[in-house]
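Support request, please re-run this one:
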Amino acid sequence: MGFEFATAGRIVFGDGSVRQVGALAAAHGRRALVVTGRRTERAAVILDSLRQAGVSASTFSVDAESSFKTARQACQAARSDGCQLIVGFGGGSPLDTAKTAAALLTNGGDPLDYAEIVGLGKAFTQPSAPLLAIPTTSGTGSEATRNTVLASLEHRVKVSLRSPFLLPAVALVDPELTHTLPPEQTAHTGMDALTQLIEPYLSTRANPITDGLCEEGIRRVARSLRRACRDGRDADARRDMSLASLFSGMALANAGLGAVHGFAGPFGGMLPGAPHGAICASLLAPVTEANLRAAAEQDPSGRTHERYGVVARLLTGRAQAGPEDAVTWLRDLCRDLETPRLRALGLVEEDIPGLLERTAASNSMRTNPVKLSAAELQRIVDQAL
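Re-run finished. Output below.
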């Protein structure tokens, strides 16, 4: 077996660790662009820490999903202000915008030059400007991934830019930043993290390092996601979810994903504003069931069933749990968290044929443990509606 493993240049984890951002940033430059979400006032702790460390900063707010437009604007803001480094602070959209801007700052060009599917798919040739990634949700794991996801509004699709140069210089994960996350957002981002742990574990590119990350992450989500939704101030549950999200980013960056994300990219482009984690939640149990059906014919080695058996035991805590128990547990979790189905998120029947075509061509389908037929893809959507 041969594999490689790459992650952020440095990972700093712990309650209160956000207060280290100034010292960490000062090692990389004296002028920073801080990319935040809609509520820029939340970044006050970042700006104060930078100021105390002698790092001047300007801010750029991402008030919607990360897109080609916001990435261009963020890069231009950094360039105009003479920024030497970028700090991404927020959920997946601010972090992906910050990562893209950092790469464009040193490589030049337009984000479409480097985008797959709708762009030219060119490779970044220069290391990104130093980037500090600070998540305020527990879901995307973007602080440890080598890709960014941008929405192309004109194409009605979300696509990725991929490069080892997109890995942040520093991933700073402070669970305390997630304590005020509302229950609904906690549920959606938590389901994203869980999907990003299960899919790399089943991936055809899984390796011993990602296996360990996925198993530990799944165990933590199973015991803590419901708790974090019930009580956002449950510090132990928030730590578990922050670690699980970090592990999910590390795992997907090195092992890839699967059919849930094969669907979620095209669906997210067609359903602007629909939470990515909610889309994943609606699809996770149907995809698991479909993979198990297909594996009965395609996987004589039994690897897929064996791995889903491990997932089931981690989720349920029962030593005798079988692969199908994972499907039941996931359906029960979505019911308990009251995650919406695709129809409630805005999917309409006439959009389905085009979405299925895009899903079949998605990069994430390449590492799904089995090949899913057009009929299976249709069945998954029918169950998720």
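DSSP finds 14 helices and eight strands in the chain. Residues 183-384 form a domain with the Dehydroquinate synthase-like, alpha domain fold (CATH 1.20.1090.10).
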